[in-house]
Amino acid sequence: MIAFKSVSKVYDNDVLALSNINIQIEKGEFVFLVGPSGAGKSTFIKLLIKEVDATSGSLIVNDKDLATITRKQIPYYRRKIGMIFQDFRLIPTLNVYENVAFAMRIVEAGRKEIRKRVPLVLAMVGLEDKHKAFPNQLSGGEQQRVAIARAIINNPIILIADEPTGNLDPETAHEIMSILADVNSAGTTVLMATHAKNIVNNMKKRVIAIENGALSRDEERGRYDEV
Predict the structure, then answer these.
(1) Dihedral, 109, 110, 112, 113 alpha carbons, nearest 10
(2) Rounded to two decimals, what is the model's pTM?
């Protein structure tokens, strides 16, 4: 599914962001990506969504070497990846239904398919009664639920969550993690970058830790901090 093979990334200012990363993530796994700020987590994600290219090594996603993907092919590649951000990134002038439907329109889904699928996904994240609300009328947790619905509406094979609970209270964060666990149980591979120690320790999923651009730990049923 995802294979980093001796991947390194050096930016133009000679900053080494990642160094010789070797990681294999299988289909259907739930993986936490942890490490201090500046460790290389953001570069790890940027490589996966083809926002930056590796300086050396190879990155294989779903049997496709990302080095062979042309600029024109990048939008089509990204259709297979759902992305959830800490700051939600909803379109403020669109209501909940429209924000989620927008992701389907981008991939040129038909109106009938959109009308059928959007309510189903909104129900999945517990927002079926909020479909007409605008982002500024929602709580932070509700906005994150919309962001999750938008990220999974096109049935991605990989869901990447970048600090999805960072701005949420503990109870709401727990609800968001329950939704992500359900998405994972349905077969989607989930990769979540986080600083939330309690969440990582309680869920006991695979933990990949990066420090100073290098892989420092890769544990099944791991914890946030090394014991």
Answers:
(1) -20
(2) 0.95
